[in-house]
Design brief:
By secondary structure, this protein is mainly α. About 50% of the residues lie in helices and about 5% in strands. A two-stranded antiparallel sheet has the order 1-2. Helix 1 packs across helix 2, helix 1 packs across helix 4 and helix 4 crosses helix 5. The longest helix has 17 residues. The radius of gyration is 17 Å and the shape is elongated.
C-alpha cells in the first residue's frame, strides 16, 4: 500500500472533521484551509469518503461535511483502504507488481512483505481519536 498525497489528504480531512465533530457540517473550504489541502483534490476525496460511509454531507447554505462514525471507530487503515483502488494482492517489493521479472525468485520480497505488514498493523491500530489525543498532548 502506497501512502500517496491523496491518501495523506484523506487522513487529514477525516482528522479535521473529527476535531470539529460537534460543530455541525463543515464546509470544504474550511477543511482545506485548516489542513492545507487543495480544494479541488479535497472535493474528490470527500466524495470518495462519503461513498465509504466515513463521512456524510448536507447540501445548502448551512451544509458541509461531518463524520458519520465516531473518531474512535475509524482507523487510519480504514481510511487508507477506502482510498485505495487496487485491492489486489501483488508484489510489494517493486513497482512491477504482477509483471515482476524476479517473481518467485526475489530475495527482497520477504523483507518488503514484513515491512508492509508492520506498517498496516500500525495504521489499523491507530484510530482518528488516537491522533486527536496525540495532538492535545
Amino acid at each position: 500500500m502506497l501512502i500517496t498525497q491523496k491518501n495523506q489528504y484523506a487522513i487529514r480531512a477525516v482528522f479535521e472533521l473529527a476535531k470539529r465533530q460537534n460543530q455541525g457540517p463543515i464546509k470544504i473550504a474550511e477543511i482545506a484551509d485548516a489542513q492545507k489541502i487543495p480544494v479541488r483534490f479535497l472535493e474528490v476525496i470527500l466524495v470518495q469518503l462519503k461513498r465509504s460511509g466515513i463521512v456524510e454531507s448536507k447540501r445548502g447554505f448551512y451544509g458541509g461535511y461531518t463524520l458519520k462514525k465516531s473518531p474512535d471507530k475509524i482507523s487510519v487503515g480504514d481510511v487508507l483502504r477506502y482510498m485505495e483502488k487496487d485491492d489486489s494482492l501483488h508484489c510489494v517489493s517493486c513497482i512491477a507488481k504482477d509483471n515482476c521479472s524476479l517473481k518467485g525468485d526475489c530475495a527482497f520480497l520477504p523483507m518488503w512483505t514484513k515491512a508492509q505488514k508492520a506498517m498496516l498493523d500500525v495504521f489499523n491500530q491507530t484510530t482518528i481519536q488516537n491522533l486527536l489525543d496525540d495532538e492535545i498532548r
